[in-house]
TrEMBL record, chains A, B:
Pathway: Amino-acid biosynthesis; L-arginine biosynthesis; L-ornithine and N-acetyl-L-glutamate from L-glutamate and N(2)-acetyl-L-ornithine (cyclic): step 1/1; Amino-acid biosynthesis; L-arginine biosynthesis; N(2)-acetyl-L-ornithine from L-glutamate: step 1/4
Site (Involved in the stabilization of negative charge on the oxyanion by the formation of the oxyanion hole): T119, G120
Location within or outside the cell: Cytoplasm
Residues the record lists as binding substrate: T156, K182, T193, E280, N404, S409
EC nos: 2.3.1.35, 2.3.1.1
Active site (UniProt): T193 (nucleophile)
Domain of life, per lineage: Bacteria
GO MF, any single term: L-glutamate N-acetyltransferase activity, acting on acetyl-L-ornithine as donor
Similarity comment text for this entry: Belongs to the ArgJ family.
Function: Catalyzes two activities which are involved in the cyclic version of arginine biosynthesis: the synthesis of N-acetylglutamate from glutamate and acetyl-CoA as the acetyl donor, and of ornithine by transacetylation between N(2)-acetylornithine and glutamate.
Record's protein name: Arginine biosynthesis bifunctional protein ArgJ
Name of the gene this protein is made from: argJ
Entry-linked Pfam families: ArgJ (PF01960)
InterPro entries: Arg_biosynth_ArgJ, ArgJ-like_dom_sf, ArgJ_beta_C
Length: 409, 409
């Protein structure tokens, strides 16, 4: 059961002029399943992406990086579920490229104008011929209002399709922003693989697209964690179709740049948080705010130490206000000169620890009340400076173990 | 159920001349429980310790460091379960010191000659008056052959007492080496706290004791992990009573120094591995060997990434040869220039991946056979150099979640 997350309605998702989406059943791993999605992008769009830092990155991630670097203008994306094409060596690269070549041929483009994405079981050869055979049906399905179909088409064991959408006014023009994501919940491959795609018809100069993609990822997908396992396939792609009638954004520091980024970040956060809300076995959604740090980096170090601690995560699952586990995680986060006597800890608005010790005014029933909620904010004040950052995560439940211990039958 | 670990017999544990141990029921948290242990050390011993790196270290850890730094000659240790005296601020230091003062008074020693250790529930005031009231009974119980009682006396939710012993010939003299440990399995405090104590009657110059303690810890306790949570109270103390009739060891590089260290390391490893075998919910004991690294540090980085991955650990629990999870953990271990095409992976002697891809000769049934064992060796060859290191861990089971989600009632 996802935490406070319901399926989007197609009518709530704004089409993005210049983007069309088609979905098909290609039988990649199982029959009768929408497992192939094609995204068609009109000429003239700006496209950028950020990808997994995992050195064991999947073949499609390597091909995406190559094709984006070529700079020939990305015109389509091909996304399959059922097979991640990871841990597949040189042969995996050949197969990923084959899907690009096949789609490029049908669209009369160069293969370097296609970005491939795969998610699913790993260390098995990608059945690229099934993808190629499914392309005609996917292309025939292409339409501007198929975002919900795409959100469904990229699901693996996500329990809810994830799509968010908004409109904003940029330079006097109304622009649409729509995105989809998939996340943590892949029983078969037994690996959490995050994919996120966003599109807007706003005009963004190619020169600032990479910065935009990176800043959006840093404020959203790079701030969520389910189990700390960085997948081989994580990909986040941002498309600006440049169709809206406003002056092109050439700097994110301009008023228009800031407005667009803020609007897109709101959607990116919803997409990223939806992954946590639908995390494997999640029963709670937890924001970990760390403030008073010397740098943002050390705030994140502390936040991730808390977010990744199995002891903290099981305490959340149990609704147990086990403050010691949180303080212990702060202590081993790797800040060498941390002074424990300056640390305060809050569960929502309840101060539970002050100056490194239990708050004399703290009553366990207050902590208990907060821990029983489905959404909890943990706030740590480090007393070292003025930096702050937030990470979102979920608890560690029996279902997490069940889902991941389930043999790939 | 611990993994291949049975309770020691008292008759297998060699007394160490110069060390006596007494245990008592002090009612620190619960009645009718051996919760207070006193270790008495004859004058003239060399003592050294290594302690948690957690910045939120417990009060007794801080007092131990102070007292060892004073160098007045450690003559006794006082160890309680039921309360960790961690996250207790200045008041916790006062209470830890009070137990040292009380024991010192009874033994006509200086408080700085006492080392205090606490393990149990955290962020609650140490009931030091109960410890003080229990001292007479513990002292009356003191005897050289009470090592098993001590192993039992420091248990919290360990399911088996942990004690190992051996004799070695050093410089023509027979020396005894005996140690005890406790580990991961504390439902109440909900925090894994590791304590290890070793003693030998070998003669070791005080100048090399710290190096000996550190090297023993590095080869044993610092190479095991249950859940990656570094506790606030971890302590490991080594005592050499200097009673054996051989020339004092003034260098660990001498033949005698090497022989003693090897013999002590064997015991330290057994003590450390016993903690993993009795880890919370453990059903499998797993050695992670990483070889072919550029440095030992990067081998450990990779080994810990594998050992801490919840996805890998649940796969072990499920006996699922899910190779992708292991390779993914290698990939995100943080080695920036790792070349995935040089990596081989073995489960025991079965090569499952070669040059970063699935071994063509690998059959799933072979991997399955190894994964079903209760003891498994994962071997990763990085193909970057000649360094190697090993980390020991256990799997992540439903019982881990149950144990740690159990509310502190």
């Amino acid at each position: 059961m996802p935490v406070n997350l319901s399926a989007p309605r197609s009518s709530d998702l704004h089409p993005v002029p210049g983007v069309r989406i088609g979905v098909a059943e290609a039988g990649i791993r199982k029959a009768n399943r929408k497992d192939l999605t094609v995204v068609l992008i009109d000429e003239g769009a700006s496209v950028a992406g950020v990808f997994t830092q995992n050195r064991f990155c999947a073949a499609p991630v390597q091909v995406c990086r190559e094709h984006l670097a070529q700079g020939r203008g990305i015109r389509a994306m091909v996304i399959n579920t059922g097979n991640a094409n990871a841990g597949t060596g040189e042969d995996g690269l050949v197969r990923a490229r084959a899907t690009c070549i096949a789609l490029a041929r049908r669209l009369e483009l160069a293969p370097e104008q296609i970005l491939p994405f795969s998610t699913g079981v790993i260390m098995e050869p990608l059945p690229h011929e099934r993808i190629e055979a499914g392309l005609p049906a996917a292309l025939a399905d292409a339409a501007a209002d198929h975002w919900l179909r795409a959100a469904e088409g990229i699901m693996t064991t996500d329990t809810v399709p994830k799509a968010f959408s908004a409109q904003a006014t940029i330079g006097g023009a109304t622009v649409s922003i729509t995105g989809i994501s998939k996340g943590a919940g892949m029983i078969r491959p037994n690996m959490a693989t995050m994919l996120g795609f966003m599109a807007t018809d706003a005009q963004v100069a190619p020169a600032v697209m990479q910065q935009l993609a990176k800043e959006l990822a840093d404020g959203s997908f790079n701030r969520v964690t389910v189990d700390g396992d960085t997948s081989t396939n994580d990909s986040f792609v941002v498309i600006a179709t440049n169709r809206a009638r406003h002056a092109p954004i050439t700097s994110l520091d301009s008023a228009e740049g800031q407005a667009l980024k803020a609007a897109m970040l709101a959607i990116a956060r919803q997409l990223a948080q939806a992954i946590v809300r639908d995390g494997e076995g999640a029963t709670k959604f937890i924001a970990i705010q760390v403030e008073g740090g010397g740098t943002g980096e050390e705030c994140r170090q502390v936040a991730y130490a808390i977010a990744h601690s199995p002891l903290v995560k099981t305490a959340f699952f149990a609704s147990d206000p086990n403050l010691g586990r949180i303080l212990a995680a702060v202590g081993y986060a790797g800040i060498a000169d941390l002074d424990q006597t300056k640390i305060d800890l809050y569960l929502d608005d309840v101060r539970v620890a002050v100056q490194g010790g239990r708050d004399p005014a703290y009553r366990e029933e207050d902590g208990q009340r907060v821990m029983k909620q489905s959404e909890i904010t943990v706030r740590v004040a480090l007393g070292r400076g003025t930096a702050a950052d937030t990470v979102w995560t979920c608890d560690l439940s029996h279902d997490y173990v069940s889902i991941n211990a389930d043999y790939r039958s």
